[in-house]
Design a protein that fits this description.
The complex is a heterodimer of chains A (about 700) and B (about 375).
Chain A (H helix, E strand, L loop, with lengths): L1 H10 L22 H6 L7 H7 L5 H12 L4 H22 L5 E8 L14 E8 L9 H6 L20 H13 L3 E6 L6 E9 L4 E10 L6 E9 L9 H11 L4 E5 L4 E5 L22 H10 L5 H8 L5 H10 L13 H13 L15 H11 L4 E6 L3 E3 L2 E11 L3 H5 L22 E6 L2 E3 L7 H8 L19 E9 L16 H52 L6 H15 L2 H7 L13 E5 L2 E4 L17 H8 L2 H14 L5 H20 L18 E4 L1
Parallel strand pairs in A: 1-7, 12-14
Antiparallel strand pairs in A: 1-2, 2-6, 3-4, 3-6, 4-5, 7-8, 8-17, 9-11, 9-15, 10-11, 11-14, 12-13, 15-16
Helix pairs in contact in A: 5-7, 8-13, 10-11, 15-16, 16-17, 16-18
Chain B lengths: L9 H18 L5 E5 L6 E4 L4 E4 L3 E5 L6 H20 L3 E2 H8 L14 H14 L9 E2 L4 E4 L2 E5 L2 E4 L8 E3 L8 E6 L3 E5 L2 H9 L2 H5 L1 E5 L6 H14 L3 E4 L4 H12 L8 H4 L5 E4 L4 H4 L8 E2 L2 H12 L6 H13 L1 E2 L12 H13 L5
Parallel strand pairs in B: 5-6, 12-13, 12-14, 14-15
Antiparallel strand pairs in B: 1-4, 2-3, 7-10, 7-13, 8-9, 8-11, 16-17
Classes of the chains: A alpha+beta (about 700), B alpha/beta (about 375).
The structure holds adenosine-5'-diphosphate and magnesium ion.
Chain lengths: ~700, ~375
C-alpha cells in the first residue's frame, strides 16, 4: 500500500503500476488488459483512504516547508534572522518596560572536530544576544523559546517589532534542526530575583517545549535576558549582513546601545546617541476599514459581546453604540442579534454596510515614530556626511491602519575628507579625468524601526525614492535610477500593521496612501538638501574666487617688490590686497555659509550641517565619550576613551554647552584612534577593519580591540 | 652702441610706475586697474593727411579683483618685472625668453603663471601700447628674419658691414635697428625694393638686379618683421629713398603692403615710427596677368578665406582709393590669385629681365 501510494504521488495516475503489487486492482488484469488500464481514468482515492491520510502536521514539517517565509532560506540569511529575532525581542521588551536598551550581540565560530575555521569559512555559529530588559518569568521561558506561535504581541494591535509570536521560537527551531543543540536561556527579572538558566528544545510532534535543563545560577547582570543558539550559518560581510543590519538598527534606534562582537574578534560599539525612550505606543482596537471579511467572521465568532451592536461598538475603534445601531439598521439586522447567529449573507451585508459607512479615521496615538531629532542623531552618529535632515510626517491612514512615515537624508562627505585629496593631487595630464564615480545613493528602509535588507526594489519606499525628481534638488539622477551622489536616504514606516508584500516581511506594499506619504516626506528632505546645496555652491564659488585672488596676490606683491628694487613693505601690501579680496567676494557671508566662522547660518529645520568648524543644528550630545557611568560594562572600551585625556573632554563640554555639537574632527580622531588600535589587532588576520560603506558615506562605528 | 648709465631709463620708470599704481590702489582700498589701449580695428583710425593708421583712445580696464582678469593682471605685473630687469641689466631678449623667464608654478598650487607663450606675447604688446614704448625700447627683439643686399654700409657693434660685398646671401637684418644699434654709414642706392618672398629676393640677388638698377633689395620672408619695416622706414626717411613693395597677388600680399605703408591695426601706435605712407605697390597686380600674358593655368583659385579677406580689405579706409577698389575687385572677378613665382612660367629670369624693368620703366605702380 505504501509503495503504491508513493509511486502515485510521485509519478501520477498514467503510470502502469507494478502488477506484482497485490493491493493494486490493475494487477489482476492480464497483459492484454494493459491498454484498458492505461485508458482508465485516474483512480479515485476513497474518503476512507483520505481520512486515513489526515494527520497533524508537525511543527518541524511546517517549519521546513515555510522556512523561506520565516527568513531561513539560506545559511547566511539564517544567521541574520536569528540575530534579528533576538535583538528585536530585546528592544521590544526593553521599550515596553521603559528601559533604555543595552543589547550585546556575540557571534562565535563553533569549532568542528576541534578545528576553528576562519569566520568567512565557518559553517557553524553560536549566537548570543543579551539584553538589560525586564527579564522573563521562569514559567514562561520554555514556551517562549520552544513553542511556535506563542507570544504576547499577536493578540493586540500595537506597534512593535515582533508580531506573530513566531520569531524567537522559529530561530530555536532552526537551531535544533541544523545542529540539534538546545536553546540556552538565562533570564532574571530583577536584582532580588534569582537568575534562571534553561536549556529547551521543541517537541516537534506536539509543538511543546522539552526542558533539558532548568536551574538557578549566578549571573552578573541584575536584570535581563540572554539567549544562546547554535546554528548552521554563514558569515559574510557587506550587503544584507549581520553587520549592516546592526548598523542600520542603531541608526533607527539611537536610544539603544548595541555592542557587537563579530565572529572575527572585533568589537563594534554603537553608542547611545539619544537618551529618551520612544513614547510607549498605545494598543488600539482594529479599525473596521482595515478588517477583511474573513477576519471579520473570525471576530464575530470570537467576540465576548452578546449582541451585534455590542460587538461592533466594543471590538472596533471609532464605532460608537449609536453608530453601531445605525449600521445595524441600515444592514437590516437586529441590533440585539447574537453575533454567533450572524451567518452567510447577513454577515456579508453587515460587513459591506460597515465598509460603506463613513467612519472617523483611527486614533494615531498608537504610533511611536522615531522623531526628527532621534533620526538625526542616528544618522549623524553612524554616517559621515556634511548635511543631515529628517522629516516626520503627520499620521495618515491606509485601509483603517494608522501609520507615520519618516524620512531622512545624510549627504556628502565630511569637510576634513574632501579637503584632503585636493591638495596632494598630481597635475593631471591630458586625457586624465577625475574618476567619474557615479556612486548612487543608498536607501535604508525600516518598518517599525526594524531595517529591511531584502527585496529593495519591491518596496514602496524604494519606488518612492525612484519616483522623486531629485534633479529639482540639485542631485543628479539618471532616468529611472536612484539619485547619484554620496547620499544615504532613510525611510521609516511606523504602523500597528505594516503591509508587507509577502510573508517574509522584507518589502512594504505600495499602497497609494503610503506611497504618497513617503513622497511627501522625501520631497521635504530633498527641498532642504536643495537649499543647502545651492547655498553651498554659491558660497563655494565665491570662495574659489577669493582663493584665486589669494593665489595671485603673492605673485603681484613679489613682482611689485622687485619692480621697486626690493624695498617694498611686502606684508603691508599683501594685507591690503587680501582685505580687498575678501570684501569683493562676499567676505564674511561666504565664510559663514562655508562654516569658516563656526556660526550656524542655515536656518533649515531639523537639519545638521557639518563644516570644518563643527556640526551645526539639531545635534544631540549623545554619548559621554569621556567615560560616563553607563560605559562601565566594557573595560576595554572604557580604557579606550579615557586615554584621550582632559583636553578632549573639556573640548566636548564647552562645545556641547553652546550648540550641542561635537566637533567632527575630534570625533574623527577618536575614530581613527580606535581603528588604529584595531589595525594592530587585525593585521594578523590579514583583514582591514575598515567599515566603509559602499557609497562613500562612511559608517561610523567605534571599535575597540577585543 | 650707446653707452648706458646707471640712471633709470624712461622705460624703466614707466615700468616701475605700474608697481606704484598697485601700491596706491591698495593704500586706498581700491581695485588696482590698468587702462590698456584697445588693439583692434574698433580703436584705430586712418589719418588721411598723414597717410597712416593711428590708434584711438579707447581703453580697456584690466582689474586685479575681477575674476576674469585677475590672472592677466598678475601676468602683466610679472612681464613688467621681467622687462624692468632687462632695462637694469641692459640686455635684449626674445619673446620666448620672456616667456620662460616669467613662467613658474605659483606657490602652494599646481597652477603655472603662464602655460604657453601665447599668453605672454600679447601681454608684451599690451605693455607696449600702455606705456607707449616700442618693443625695441623694451629691449625685446624678434627673430632675425630679414635680409638685405645692395649699395649700403652699416655700422653694427663697431663692425663695418658693406651690403654690396656680402655675396648673394646679403646681411641678415637685426631685429633692433634703432640708430643706437645700427648705424647707416653710407648709402648710394636710388630706391628700395621690399620683396615679400625670400625665394624671389634670392632670384633678384643672384641675378644682381640691385647692381644693374642701383637699388637695395630687402625681404622679410613673408610679413616683414619690425626690424625690416623699421630699416625700410629709416632708409626712406634718412636717405630719402623711395620704397617699392613686391608681393604675391593675393589678399595677404595687399595686406603686407598696407602694413608697410600705413602700419598695422594691432600696433597702430607704432605707425609713427614704422609706417611709410609713400611706399608704392609694385606688384603683383591683378592687372598684371593680362598685361604680362600670364596664362590662366598658373593662377590659383581663390578660396573662401581669400574672398572674405579681400572683401574685408575693401572696407578698410586706406583701401578706399578708386584704383585700389578696382585692383581688389579685379582679383575677385577673375577668381584667381597669382604667386610671384608664377612668373617663372615664362622664363626663369622673367622677373629680373622683363617684369621689373618694364614696371620701373612704365612707372606702373599703385599708391
Ligand atoms: N528578551 C526578551 N525579554 C522579554 N520578553 C521576551 C524576550 N524575548 C521574547 N519575549 C517574549 O516572548 C514573546 C514571543 O517572542 P517571539 O517568539 O519573538 O514572538 P513576537 O516577538 O512576534 O511576539 C514576546 O511576545 C515577548 O513577550
Ligand atoms: Mg519577536
Amino acid at each position: 500500500m505504501t509503495t503504491m501510494r508513493e509511486s502515485r504521488s510521485v509519478t501520477g495516475p498514467m503510470v502502469v503500476v507494478s502488477p506484482s503489487d497485490p493491493a493494486d486492482p490493475a494487477s489482476h488484469s492480464h497483459a492484454g488488459a494493459q491498454k484498458k488500464t492505461a485508458s482508465k481514468p485516474a483512480e479515485r482515492v476513497t474518503a476512507i483512504e483520505m481520512g486515513a491520510r489526515q494527520r497533524e502536521i508537525s511543527v518541524s514539517e511546517f517549519f521546513t516547508k515555510n522556512r523561506h517565509l520565516l527568513g531561513f532560506d539560506n545559511p547566511r540569511k539564517a544567521l541574520l534572522t536569528c540575530v534579528k529575532e533576538a535583538v528585536d525581542n530585546a528592544l521590544d521588551a526593553c521599550e515596553e518596560a521603559g528601559i533604555l536598551p543595552d543589547v550585546t550581540v556575540r557571534l562565535e565560530v563553533v569549532p568542528i572536530d576541534g578545528v576553528t575555521p576562519p569566520a568567512s569559512q565557518a559553517t557553524r555559529f553560536r549566537v548570543t544576544v543579551t539584553d538589560n530588559g525586564p527579564g522573563i518569568v521562569r514559567q514562561q521561558i520554555p514556551r517562549i523559546f520552544a513553542k511556535l506561535l506563542y507570544g504576547s504581541k499577536f493578540h493586540r494591535l500595537r506597534m512593535s517589532r515582533g508580531q506573530q509570536g513566531i520569531g524567537i521560537s522559529a530561530a530555536g527551531m532552526y537551531a535544533q534542526l541544523t545542529t540539534g543543540k538546545p536553546v540556552r536561556i538565562i533570564s532574571r527579572i530583577g536584582p532580588r530575583a534569582a537568575a534562571h538558566f534553561f536549556e529547551v528544545q521543541i517537541d516537534t510532534k506536539k509543538n511543546e517545549p522539552l526542558v533539558h535543563e532548568s536551574k538557578q545560577i549566578e549571573w552578573d547582570q541584575p536584570r535581563g535576558t540572554q539567549v544562546t543558539m547554535e546554528i548552521e550559518g554563514r558569515y559574510q560581510k557587506g550587503r544584507a549582513s549581520v553587520d549592516e543590519w546592526l548598523e542600520q538598527t542603531s541608526i533607527a534606534n539611537p536610544h539603544a546601545k548595541l555592542i557587537y562582537y563579530t565572529p572575527e574578534g572585533e568589537i563594534k560599539e554603537y553608542t547611545r546617541a539619544y537618551h529618551e525612550l520612544p513614547p510607549s505606543p498605545r494598543e488600539i482596537k482594529p479599525h473596521p476599514y482595515g478588517i477583511e471579511f474573513g477576519m471579520f467572521l473570525k471576530m464575530v465568532q470570537e467576540t465576548k459581546s452578546h449582541t451585534v451592536v455590542g460587538f461592533l461598538a466594543s471590538d472596533f475603534c471609532r464605532i460608537s453604540p449609536q453608530l453601531a445601531d445605525q449600521i445595524c439598521r441600515q444592514a437590516k439586522i437586529s441590533p440585539e442579534m447574537k453575533p454567533r447567529d450572524l451567518k452567510g449573507s447577513a454577515a456579508e451585508t453587515l460587513y459591506r454596510t460597515i465598509q460603506s459607512t463613513k467612519i472617523m479615521a483611527p486614533p494615531t496615538n498608537c504610533l511611536s515614530p522615531i522623531g526628527e531629532k532621534a533620526i538625526l542623531a542616528g544618522l549623524y552618529k553612524q554616517i559621515k556626511g556634511e548635511f543631515y535632515t529628517a522629516v516626520t510626517r503627520p499620521p495618515a491612514v491606509y485601509r483603517g491602519n494608522p501609520f507615520v512615515i519618516e524620512a531622512g537624508l545624510a549627504y556628502g562627505q565630511r569637510p576634513d575628507e574632501h579637503n584632503k585629496p585636493e591638495q596632494p593631487a598630481a597635475p593631471r595630464a591630458e586625457g586624465e579625468h577625475e574618476e567619474d564615480d557615479v556612486e548612487l545613493a543608498r536607501v535604508i528602509r525600516y518598518a517599525n524601526r526594524v531595517p529591511l535588507l531584502y527585496q529593495q526594489s519591491a518596496c514602496a519606499t524604494f519606488k518612492a525614492v525612484l519616483g522623486l525628481s531629485w534633479k529639482n534638488y540639485g542631485v543628479a539622477q539618471a532616468r529611472g535610477a536612484l539619485p547619484a551622489g554620496p547620499m544615504v536616504i532613510f525611510v521609516h514606516m511606523a504602523s500597528v500593521w505594516v503591509p508587507f508584500t509577502s510573508e517574509s516581511k522584507e518589502a512594504i506594499a505600495d499602497y497609494d496612501e503610503i506611497h504618497k506619504e513617503i513622497t511627501l516626506a522625501l520631497r521635504e528632505c530633498g527641498r532642504r538638501l536643495g537649499i543647502y546645496l545651492r547655498r553651498r555652491e554659491r558660497a563655494a564659488s565665491e570662495y574659489r574666487r577669493r582663493n584665486i585672488f589669494e593665489l595671485y596676490i603673492e605673485e603681484v606683491v613679489e613682482a611689485c617688490n622687485r619692480l621697486k628694487g626690493g624695498t617694498l613693505p611686502k606684508e603691508k601690501l599683501k594685507k591690503q590686497l587680501q582685505t580687498i579680496a575678501v570684501s569683493r567676494t562676499g567676505g564674511i557671508k561666504t565664510d559663514e555659509v562655508l562654516g569658516k566662522t563656526g556660526e550656524g547660518p542655515e536656518g533649515l529645520p531639523h537639519s545638521i550641517i557639518v563644516t570644518e568648524g563643527g556640526a551645526e543644528g539639531d545635534v544631540v550630545v549623545g554619548t559621554k565619550l569621556d567615560g560616563g557611568g553607563e560605559e562601565a560594562g566594557i573595560g576595554q572600551s572604557r580604557d579606550g576613551h579615557t586615554d584621550h585625556g582632559g583636553g578632549l573632554a573639556s573640548g566636548s563640554k564647552s562645545d556641547g554647552g553652546k550648540s550641542g555639537g561635537i566637533r567632527p574632527s575630534w570625533r574623527q580622531n577618536q575614530r581613527e584612534r580606535f581603528t588604529g588600535e584595531d589595525e594592530k589587532n587585525k593585521t594578523r588576520k590579514g583583514e582591514r577593519p575598515s567599515s566603509r560603506a559602499s557609497n562613500g558615506a562612511v559608517r561610523r562605528s567605534r571599535k575597540v580591540t577585543a | 652702441m650707446m653707452t648706458k648709465t646707471k640712471k633709470p631709463t624712461t622705460v624703466e620708470k614707466k615700468l616701475v610706475g605700474l608697481a606704484d599704481l598697485v601700491i596706491q590702489a591698495a593704500e586706498r582700498s581700491k581695485d588696482p586697474t590698468l587702462q590698456i589701449p584697445i588693439r583692434a580695428l574698433s580703436n584705430v583710425s586712418f589719418n588721411e593727411r598723414k597717410g597712416m593708421i593711428e590708434m584711438g583712445d579707447k581703453k580697456q580696464a584690466r582689474s586685479f579683483f575681477n575674476i576674469g582678469m585677475a590672472k592677466k593682471f598678475m601676468q602683466t605685473m610679472l612681464v613688467a618685472d621681467a622687462l624692468a630687469e632687462l632695462q637694469r641689466a641692459d640686455l635684449t631678449t626674445s619673446l620666448r625668453e620672456i616667456y620662460y623667464r616669467t613662467k613658474h608654478t605659483i606657490r602652494d598650487s599646481h597652477e603655472n603663471t603662464f602655460d604657453t607663450q601665447d599668453e605672454s606675447d600679447p601681454i608684451i604688446e599690451d605693455l607696449e601700447v600702455t606705456l607707449s614704448a616700442l618693443r625695441e625700447e623694451l629691449h625685446v627683439r624678434a627673430e632675425n628674419a630679414g635680409s638685405i643686399v645692395g649699395p649700403v654700409v652699416f655700422g653694427d657693434d663697431g663692425d663695418r658691414v658693406d651690403c654690396s660685398k656680402l655675396g648673394k646671401g646679403g646681411y641678415s637684418v637685426p631685429s633692433i635697428v634703432e640708430p643706437e644699434y645700427l648705424e647707416i654709414r653710407r648709402c648710394t642706392a636710388d630706391f628700395v625694393l621690399l620683396v615679400e618672398k625670400g625665394t624671389q629676393w634670392n632670384r633678384l640677388s643672384e641675378d644682381k638686379f640691385w647692381r644693374r638698377y642701383n637699388c637695395i633689395l630687402l625681404t622679410g620672408n613673408g610679413q616683414p618683421p619690425r626690424g625690416v619695416r623699421r630699416l625700410a622706414r629709416r632708409l626712406h626717411e634718412e636717405q630719402g629713398l623711395p620704397i617699392y613693395v613686391l608681393v604675391d597677388n593675393d589678399p595677404w600680399g595687399y595686406y603686407i603692403y598696407s602694413v608697410v605703408k600705413q602700419g598695422s591695426i594691432n600696433l597702430a601706435f607704432e605707425s609713427q615710427r614704422m609706417a611709410i605712407p609713400k611706399a608704392k605697390f609694385m606688384g603683383l597686380s591683378s592687372a598684371d596677368p593680362e598685361r604680362y600674358g600670364l596664362p590662366r593655368n598658373v593662377g590659383i583659385k581663390l578660396n573662401d578665406k581669400d574672398v572674405a579677406r579681400a572683401k574685408e580689405l575693401m572696407n578698410y579706409q586706406w583701401f578706399k582709393k578708386p584704383a585700389w577698389q578696382a585692383e581688389i575687385k579685379r582679383m575677385l572677378t577673375s577668381g584667381l590669385k597669382y604667386e610671384l613665382d608664377a612668373l617663372a612660367n615664362k622664363d626663369f629670369q622673367y622677373l629680373t629681365k622683363q617684369y621689373l624693368p618694364r614696371k620701373l620703366r612704365e612707372q606702373d605702380w599703385l599708391d
